[in-house]
Each structure stands twice: as C-alpha cells, then as structure tokens.
C-alpha cells in the first residue's frame, strides 16, 4: 500500500474508545489508499477526532469518499445543495438536534458503515457530542444475558422522527437510498447483537433513538430487556465526550457505536454537516 500522507499521531482519548489524530490535513486525504490507513484506525478506536481542520463542503465530501463509498445525505432529508447531495445538514433551528442515544439510520435495511461530521457553526458554549462503545456495552452483560441477546432480533423504526417530514415537507418523495426512492418508512429488523464485519467483535446493536421492539419475547419482556440494554449503552465509563471547536471533524464507526448530541445551548444556532459511508446489512451471531 502506497500513500503520500505524513505519519499520523494517535492519542487515545479514553480507555474505552476514541483517538485524537494529529499531524494530518484532511484536504490531503484523497485516495482509498490514504483512507485505508484511517479505516484501520477507525475499526480499532471507533471514534477518530481530527481537530482544527479547514474543509469546504467539497473537501469534506472528498475526504469521506477516500474512506469508503458515500451515500446520499439521508434516506428522507435532501442534501445541502445540487452540488453536494451527499451532505446532510444538521441545523438546530430546523430540527437538527438529537438528544438521545442513537446509531445513524438503523431504520433502513443497510445502515451506514460510518459517519463523517464537521462543525460549521457552533454555539459559544455547549453542544458537545458523546459516543458510547457498543462492544463494551455487550461485554458488560452477564453471560446468560449475552447468550439470550445473541438470539434476539429487534424492530428499528424511523417514523416518529421522519414520517411527518416525508409526508408534509416532501410530498411523500424522499431520497434515493440503495437505488430505490424512499416513499414510506416501514420498520426493519436487525439482530440485537451485531458481528462487526472487519473485526469479528460483537456489539449491542440497539438504540433508544430507533429500536422499538424485541421480536422473540412478549411486549412486557421486550420493554424490560430493552431497558437493560439501553442502560448498558449509557454507562459513562463506556463513553467519550467531544467539545467542538471550529473546523473539527469527527469520524465514527456506526457499526459499533451510538452517539448523543447534548442539547444544552438553548436557541443559539448550531450547524453541523454530515456525510455517511455505505454500510453492510447487519449480521448477527
């Protein structure tokens, strides 16, 4: 493998997950060979923070494309503009807040591999993002409960967040996702425990944002078990918190993490741009 990138320095952020990446200008990451080095670090650390970058929307998209195949901005919400249909705009004044643990787009059959988030306009205080290690959450369960979780599947449903947007603002015509125009949001089924396609490690692949029901148990059992799983996901010792600064870019592995955007900045505008990478159909144990 050949690359023109200078040596990068990885500084682990917590024992659980995350690394700060120094010594690299993301404007120079343009080939899949360059991206492969960072993809390997991503699988290991799950969250990579690139501080103080200077990316235009086009450079943001091109960097993401070096990491993998990029998707449209979102299955429902259109992209930034005609030149950047891959960039999803998260504007706090237009519903772009996510103060709940979630993994991106798990309400589709093939959720993204990862996300590349760039700070565009930040409040003077607050607006941090937290990530949690879903592999650590799985390992924290008792052996008996892990064995049960390995056998379960769950419904993931995006209608509460996006159905009214699809109907009222888009007239029922969403984006093209995996080659098909999205006109409805039927719940999808994913394994509760996902096997990472690159590392082979197991993660709890449920999240409070989109997971609504376990299928192999009763409704009351589902509520109780999801409560246990969600509590494991939210344990502070499995998390890392990033305080954004101008130009920061964070890349995370959507197959082994969930994240939470802290809504503590009132009515001040916060704008982030996100590009997602095409993923695999989740595979269970």
UniProtKB/TrEMBL annotation:
Gene3D superfamilies: Clavaminate synthase-like. Its cofactor is Fe(2+). GO terms for molecular function: dioxygenase activity. InterPro entries: AtsK-like, TauD-like_sf, TauD/TfdA-like. SUPFAM superfamilies: Clavaminate synthase-like. Keywords: Dioxygenase, Iron, Metal-binding, Oxidoreductase. The keyword ATP-binding does not apply. Residues 12-276 form the TauD/TfdA-like domain. Pfam families: TauD. It comes from the Bacteria. Belongs to the TfdA dioxygenase family. This is Taurine dioxygenase. It comes from Actinokineospora diospyrosa.
């Amino acid at each position: 493998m050949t690359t023109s990138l200078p040596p990068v320095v990885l500084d682990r952020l917590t024992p659980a997950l995350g690394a700060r990446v120094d010594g690299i200008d993301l404007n120079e990451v343009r080939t899949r060979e360059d991206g492969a080095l960072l993809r390997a670090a991503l699988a290991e650390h799950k969250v990579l923070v690139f501080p103080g970058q200077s990316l235009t929307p086009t450079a943001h998209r091109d960097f993401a494309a070096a990491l993998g195949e990029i998707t449209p901005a979102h299955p429902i919400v259109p992209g930034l503009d005609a030149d950047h249909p891959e960039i999803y705009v998260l504007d706090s004044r237009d519903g772009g807040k996510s103060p709940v643990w979630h993994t991106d787009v798990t309400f589709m059959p093939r959720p993204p591999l990862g996300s590349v988030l760039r700070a565009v306009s930040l409040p003077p205080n607050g607006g941090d993002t937290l990530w949690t290690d879903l592999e650590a959450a799985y390992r924290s369960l008792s052996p008996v409960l892990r064995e049960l979780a390995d056998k379960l599947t769950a419904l993931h449903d995006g209608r509460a967040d996006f159905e009214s947007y699809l109907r009222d603002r888009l007239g029922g015509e969403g984006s093209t996702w995996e080659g098909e125009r999205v006109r409805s949001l039927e719940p999808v089924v994913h394994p509760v425990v996902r096997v990472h396609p690159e590392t082979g490690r197991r993660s709890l692949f449920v999240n409070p944002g989109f997971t609504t029901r376990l299928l192999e148990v009763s409704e009351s059992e589902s509520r109780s078990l999801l409560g246990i799983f969600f509590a494991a996901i939210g344990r502070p010792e499995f998390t890392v918190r990033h305080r954004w600064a101008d130009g920061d870019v964070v890349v995370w592995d959507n197959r082994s993490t969930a994240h939470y955007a802290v809504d503590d900045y009132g009515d001040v505008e916060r704008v982030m741009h996100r590009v997602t990478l095409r993923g695999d159909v989740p595979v269970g144990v």
